[in-house]
LysR family carnitine catabolism transcriptional activator
Amino acid sequence: MNVTPRQLRIFLALAESLNFSRTAEKFFVTQPSLSKAVKDLEDELGITLFERSTRSVRLTAAGGRLTAIARRVVGEFDSGIERLHSQAEHEFHQVAIAALPSVANSLLPAVCARLEEKFGNPKFTIYDGTNASTIQRLLTYQVDFALASAAPSHAELEYEEILRDRFVLLAPETWKHVKAKTRMEDLVNLPLISGTDASTAKEYVKAAMLQRGVVFEPKLALDQVGTAAGFVREGLGIIVQPYLGILPLLGLKGMRMCRIIDGPIRSVGIVRRKASSLSAIAEQGVVEAREAAQKLIRQFPAWILSP
């Protein structure tokens, strides 16, 4: 059965006015077009809705019974359309992003600030977590896009590198034997504090050590860089992390940063689903992420590199 909301609206208007001329004017159609619309509805339903003569129009018994049903159907349709509009408006003003903690700290605030300027008062959902959990949230449609390290090996995802950051060393200020410019081989016998196995930073350091024939065996493996900083401040070890990872710690007393001349360089990029189109606000979020990355590159050229 192919009955349209417009046909039901015409039927209800004619049932109320019982006047083809006024009803045709209301819908901006000719009387013959209105008559055809009514006839098409009658044919579709298999019943006669109106008794027509040269002098009058009136509802049939079946037509009278149909009016209550038609009002309910049209009312539910209008309510559904209103809910769709409301949901569309809601979607237009919300964006969900997953990111590595270091990127969420250094890059996402600027992105969200710009989106607030452009979209009024949007709703942000931000997830900061491991690279694996960040990619998983994208695959399961929990987020619109992700900011992750290294291209994920999923055919349905695409990766756009937006910056690279150098690995640096964060040491206790009292450790004068740690050089301001050091090499990976100098770190072999030092008490290194790394991330856990879920950390991409640890994978980068492990791979760099392996290239030099050394098995990476950190003194401690901690989830949070802030926790590791406390151990560094007490002289219990040193941190080797990407520059963005230790950026929030640089203002803390009792620590100093050292350059690793031949250290690894981490890739950071935007990850999105190939087959999915983004909402206007999410697409703008991608644009702002690129711009925020460029700003970091200009601000810290010694540590943050162009793709």
